[in-house]
Amino acid sequence: MKLSGIFQTTFFCTVILAAGCGSEAKELDAADLIGRWDVREALRNGQPTGTLDQLYFEFFEDGTMRTNLPNMESATYVVEGNLIKQRESPIQTDYTIESLTDTAMVLTTTISNYPFRFTMSKVVMEK
């Protein structure tokens, strides 16, 4: 009886550990950002805002970026963890990457005390 109890406990612990190991988040690779991203939905204070309907972000391999957010045009950026740190621009801000796939990205940030959430699609350039 004791042997089967030990076996059950060991089996249970092994299952828990295996499940925990598989749940680690994939580390963001800055190369995943390279390209142009167009907004599908922009929220300010949790409400849709039509003033950002044409918003885009463009990330380049050399650590520079462009966006048409007002007063921001070009900047430099670095990726640290799940943050994109925009620098060398009139407004320096950090974007939190909520999710990122090869075709979609969700960014959140706060600008001038307003929280923003951008749901974006990657633009596929035809060759």
Which SSEs are present, and which pair or pack?
Blueprint: H1 2-21, E1 35-44, E2 47-48, E3 56-59, E4 64-67, E5 74-80, E6 83-87, E7 93-100, E8 104-111, E9 114-122
Antiparallel strand pairs: 1-2, 1-3, 1-9, 3-4, 4-5, 5-6, 6-7, 7-8, 8-9
Specify the biggest β-sheet.
Answer: 8 strands, antiparallel, barrel
| Proportion in β-strands | 35-45%
- Count of beta strands: 9
Gross geometry: globular
C-alpha Rg, in Å?
21 Å
Category by helix and strand content: alpha+beta
Structure described in brief:
The protein has 127 residues and is an alpha+beta fold.
Folded structure, characterized:
The protein has 127 residues and is α+β, with helices and mostly antiparallel strands. Helices cover 16% and strands 45% of the residues. It is built from one helix and nine strands. The longest helix has 20 residues, at 2-21.
Observed structural traits:
127 residues, alpha+beta, Lipocalin, 1 helix
